[in-house]
Amino acid sequence: MTRFNAWNVFKNGFTGQKNWDRQWRDPEPKKEYDIIIVGGGLHGLATAYYLAKNHNKKKIAVLEKGWIGGGNAGRNTTIVRSNYMMPGNHEFYEHSLKLWENLSHDLNYNVMFSQRAHVSLFHSPSARDGAARRYNVMRLHGTDAELWDLETLKKKIPHLNYDDARFPIMGAAVQRRAGNARHDSAVWGYARAADSLGVDILQNCEVTGVTRNQSNIESLETSRGSIKAKKVGFAVAGHTSVLWQMAELGNLPIETHKLQAFVTESIKPLLDHVVVYGVGGAHFYISQSDKGSMVFGGDLDWYKSYAQRGNLPIVQDSAEAAMAIMPFLGRVRLLRHWAGVMDMSMDGSFFICKTPLSNLYLNAGWNYGGFKASPASGWYFADLIANEQPHKHIQNHNLERFEKGINIDERGAGPDPKLHG
Amino acid sequence: MSVVLVQIQSCTVDMIRIKCPYCGERDHSEFSYGGDASIKYPALDASESEWTEAIFFRENIRGIQKETWHHTNGCRLWLEVERSTITHEIKSVKPCHPQIETITKNKL
Question: Which of A9, A249, A262, A402 has its CA 20 to 30 Å from the CA of residue A292?
Fold first, then answer.
């Protein structure tokens, strides 16, 4: 693997930049691996990378049914933040944010992480108090957090609708270290880095069956043949239930829902921050990509679905939400919109845990928040697979937490997956 | 040509149309999605694990599932709908409460 650095760019300049190695190999599946990660998204690839890097594991394969970057890695709105409050969650997401801060150097791949600040608007005194509580908890745990009053907010983002918004803007809760990253770069960077540590990335390799005995998985049947594995990790959020039932393991505290995202035509620099708000039913987040497009999203489509395309009422809702605080977007044309399917869990928090089978490990239930979580997700999932012991930050992120009554419900919405936005 | 037609048809179901037995066929935006209609709650004195299973665990079917919808901006009936979670195609719609079915039939 040729490293990306100034000298190599200079050297390859003599040959028209045509002699770079391919980013990752395209190997034939071996008959057996020590560890197989099912799912070549950000979480699966990050897991494989940290298994190889942190735990010095060999003979690892990542199975991907499509191509790298073609699933939810290419369907998110690229926001990275760590404004979580529940024990376990804030340590986890703060660790993830710290990994993002150094990810480009770590992977030798520019993930374009831009700490442009995550500005969460509030629209009522009680919402301000709620935000103050949450952001004070963050500060107590060493995460950066601040409240902007209306004057500060107007100075920072002067062009929001402060005059006649349906819900008047009163200020914002802000995390300055939060921001965006480039989704393709992140997933390609992990793939390239994992591959250079010897991980086999097997694309077009769909798991079609799971061969197991009473207590563990023996092999995975795939579209590229049967592959034996000593340990198996599932990281297929969106389709976790499908794979789980293939292994005859019954039900999960997960429903699959779809979430839409929208991209407008490119315009000149307009918005320097990630701006978010939630009022009543509406929920909205927007940022501007490096290409100039406005990237935004809103709520789920509200009904369970595995279809990777969105419905029309949410297009209207999201457009209305955009217009409510940024009326100047009214003449900007929408270029594309799409939907990704996601594991919505019963309390809005994720699972990185052991399973009823001794050599199967589960990484699932990422709700809306899988993109920002992916570095820490890979980090702790690799730790679990290598050490057979959950790290203390994720010790309650398991399937047993519901029966024990220790739900990790950030939003306090109760056991209804579609409400955990 | 036929392949193209099939693709176009499968894209036209972005707005689901639900045939409410009382009001007729309407856009799904008139309705609120309830959830899985196949859940059976155990007896009150059943074990904690049975209750955990009923409240928190779902089959999460990829295919045709039974689910509830509430005609919030219509007759406010709760409906039991059989719908594909892959194509969104609806197989059947009936009121959740069987007695209401006879009442609506008499009305209609």
Answer: A9
